[in-house]
What we know:
Distance between the termini: 23 Å
Oligomer: single chain
CATH topology: Alpha-Beta Plaits
Order of helices and strands: EHHEEHHEEHEEHHE
Strand content: 35-45%
Number of domains: 1
Amino acid sequence: MTQQITTISIFTFSTIWQKIWAFFMMQFAHGPMRNQKGLEFYKLLGTGKTGFNPLPDWGTYAVLQVWNNEQAAKLFFEESSLFQRYVNNTNEHLVLFMKNMVSKGEWNGNNPFKKHYNVDKSNEYLAVITRATIKTRLLLKFWKFVPKSQHSLSDNKGLLYTKGVGEMPFKQMATFSIWKNKSALEDFAYRANGHITAIKKTRDLKWYSEELFARFQPYHRFGNFKNDAIPLNFN
């Protein structure tokens, strides 16, 4: 177990110039990130349109970061000129602090998430990251099936937020979601027909060359994000 903290920052951009700036930062933010003290792992992520659509959402980007400890994370958000540039150019932003509870699989050959030594049992909220690299020969079959597997998400009242994110459109995809509690997540994962079928197809077709599942406890948020579905009672 560890003191490691994971943060995810979600930024929305409205004007054409903001969107151009955000697109170019997918390349230019790497330098400052690589030199950031206390940062163990990071990913600059584009997002997909609503409904887990493979087409890009040019107005939303995300930054995933894994830190040695909470102090290193807070120092970045309080003092980093890179983060301030994002804030100055964004329309809305949300930053979530999370403690890892379980993580299985690999991301670029390694599992970057380590189980945190101390989670709050009274905090039932869960955040989930799933990530996979789809085999090239199965890309079309995968994306044709995805809409069927996601139908039950719209009916799940325990799902507070979800967004498709990724490093490379179509091929390297991930999802980030926030759930009211473990029961709501398990209702979707183990009892929703579309998702159960998707799991079976994953096993039968083996359409991922690499995959990862990670569950977190979100415990702190800040920013000016106006999505009221995301819990407001984090510290």
